[in-house]
Amino acid sequence: MTETLEIDGLSLRRRLAETTDDHRPWLLDVRQGWEVAAAPFACDRHIPMDKLAEAVDDLPAERDIVVVCAHGQRSLMVARWLRHNGWPRAYSLAGGTAAWETE
Fold it and tell me: In sequence order, what are the residues at sequence separation of 6 or more whose Cβ sits closer than 8 angstroms to the Cβ of residue 21?
């Protein structure tokens, strides 16, 4: 991934298909529980954005982390926050799950 904060859905799909489990991006869903229930998204961990500070130590430091939300705004804020707090390989899924479904 480049040094940008965002990754588009097509690039993420390619990375997920082409990499082994140890190197594939780790997907973090920061939507609220009701959003996940209404529109499930296969991820490694669901931590609502407002609970992330409590669970941040559970995130892998050795992998790219792709943060997911509904439209990409919250995930971009979380990716910036993660980078500022010691996770330099944090990215946001551009356009969120809405864009993922249409790409």
Answer: none
